[in-house]
## 1
Amino acid sequence: MRLVLISRRLKVVLAIVAILCCACVRSPAPRFYALSSIQEGQDLSSRRSPTKDAVIGIGPVKLADYLDQSQIVTRTSNNQVVKAEFDRWVGPFKDNFINVLADDISFLLSTERIYLFPWRQSVPIDYQVTVDVVRCDGRLGDAAWMETRWSIFKGPEKKLLKTMRSSISEPVTGADYSDLVAAQSRALAKLSQEIVAAIKQAGKN
């Protein structure tokens, strides 16, 4: 009988220890990230372009389905995609992408007259930029890749000026997710530069 009581007490003690251990072992706190604009820390007023003060409409912007989530996506191979468990976008990735794209284009064209789709019909859009994001991911310690299809339309009649496909890669200088996001920001800046170059060329014609 005494052995039975000791056994029961031992089970109770072990159960309490297990509960305490589970309480002590906590999941790592999630880490949040955001793309950054190239205009941060730079003087917008010092830039000039043939399309200064042009009215630019950004959108629609479409993202591949696998990117429309809070978790940051990386690749371990060309065909294997991994979703980070604790490293996430601070808000909707699509909104972050569109806002940074708009900031970059605004900076490069020296115009604050940027409108995001959908805008009112009464807004006199000079150039409309549409973007389909096919890929936006990377490999830690390797590179970030961004593949897009984009088009530029001119005026209220929406005359198609150019349609392009951009494939951009940027080195990831470290093994941390912050390094990956920094590389993705640089890739988005390069995409913005390609789009702006096309708009400036149209402004000269």
## 2
Amino acid sequence: MCRSIRTLHNFVPPATEEEMRAAALQYVRKVAGVTRPSQANAPAFDEAVQAVTAATRRLVRALVTSAPPKTREAELARARERWQRRSARAGG
């Protein structure tokens, strides 16, 4: 999975349309193997981004959980902590 794609489910505040589109764009880039499509492929690329964004929106809205909502700040702090642990192991 592309490391740039972030979890969007169960956050307060909920994921924005922009976050969903960014995740869709990263997914389509990964599948296509390009960051910027050629002019000939741009329409298909853009259509795929729109379709994946719509599917992401439907999925995020349909998911249910009994877990308490997460905050972006807490998840960022956890990610930083994981990165520091990995860095310490790699350096030592």
## 3
Amino acid sequence: MLRSTLAFSMLVFAAGAAEAADAASYSAKLSRPTTNRFIARDVVWNCGADACLGATENGRPVVLCQSLAKQGGHVDAFLVDGRALPASELERCNALAKPAAAKALAAQ
């Protein structure tokens, strides 16, 4: 019984590791750093003083950036697996950014 439970646990762990290996990792630097946690487009963004981090198997980088910008504000840099989003796509991302003034009013 113990062997079968251990074997099943190893199988589940291996499947989870393989699934995680397929996920792209994203990193974003916001103009106004935050320590908030956002869920946008099925990506959990964990933010710290330096960057927001997230991962997903699905999605287009610009769309994921836009969804983060809607909640977190202007994005200064957006990386996909360590590669920077081109300036033109970053500009498209920030077109939907949450205005800083509205964010400041919400904090009051």
## 4
Amino acid sequence: MSRAFRFLLAAGGLVLALSGGGPARAELLVPMDPVQTDHLRAYGLTYWALQQGFHGAWLLNDRGGSFLLPDNARGSSEAAVRGVLVEAVSGAQVAQIRAEIADNNMESVKLETAPRIAVYVPPTAPPWDDAVQLALEYAQIPYTKLWDAEVLQGRLSEYDWLHLHHEDFTGQYGKFYAAFAGTDWYRRQVAENVAIARKLGYSKVSELKKAVARAIKSYVAAGGFLFAMCSATDTFDIALAAEGIDIVGSEYDGDPPDPHAQQKLDFGRCLAFQNFELEPSPLVYEYSNIDTSAKDMLRGQQNDYFTLFDFSAKQDPVPSMLVQDHTANVPGFMGQTTAFEKKLLKPGITVLAEIPGAEEAKYIHGHFGKGTFTFYGGHDPEDYQHAVGDPPTDLSLHKSSPGYRLILNNVLFPAAEKKEKKT
């Protein structure tokens, strides 16, 4: 695999951070079980260590997915400043950890280089926040903002990991027409998107967004890591399937959609979904039948949670990394796209988390070309039903959020990604 952050399966087994041979050294253990004082900033501490040129290890299924970092004064001081609990472990204790990992459903994954992070976000702030930007800023992990021009100019190749959030790649402005068409922010959003489309040589915003989606797909094929949440998950695949097809109503682009658009969709172009049906009405706050928001709303907040799958850390280290948490049951949360109908997933997609008793996937992962993609339904893990204009979540009040931990698993994933062995 082409990216420098990836390492291969060695002929005699996995390349471990806690390798055999030579005396074990003293290290700093960053526990990720309930004793941790700030789970979210623990990811930032680990990222910082990689930035400084240190190597570390991610101990899958050990104390909630703990980290092992070099034991030095700089690391201890940085942990104290960030409010992250660390434990000094001796060489003998490291050897004991190594033995426990060998005998149980655990694995040690080497972390070598801090991935370069990019977030796809409009240049002007929309009237909603982005949970991933909140997580990155709270964890103190640096990132770069990119938008349509940078994507089409090929700038994605400069980054290892890309996030998409509350975006609409179909060119229907989030399908906010019925509720917000008369508001200043909606009109401003439309005007800005039309101006950018014309500047970049596209007659319609929908065609610009489809081109951006195709560029992002190419980025994944070349080895990039894509992480999407909320409406960016399903609209991304819808835009890919609708290449060369007008699926946008006249309310959005001035002319009617192709009456045979549904029959013309090419699901072979999609990454994660297939056989879905479009929602053509501009008055319905939904893009297709991929999303399960209507079902989730009926359950209500008190009954809404999702369950993480327990993978074999040795045989399936990739999904194991993505589900590391200090609980298997995570409180649910809504979004424009809340979760995904399982029956519409493509073959080969790994379900990382599901809604118990329902045929709904909350969190999925897949491969395309040399890269990977992970889709996580919902808008904000600590704001159950985030409304337009609501204030952003204060993560200092949610330092141990299991839902936000899943986001940060994905941020560190490129530093450790390896070839996957399916059980």
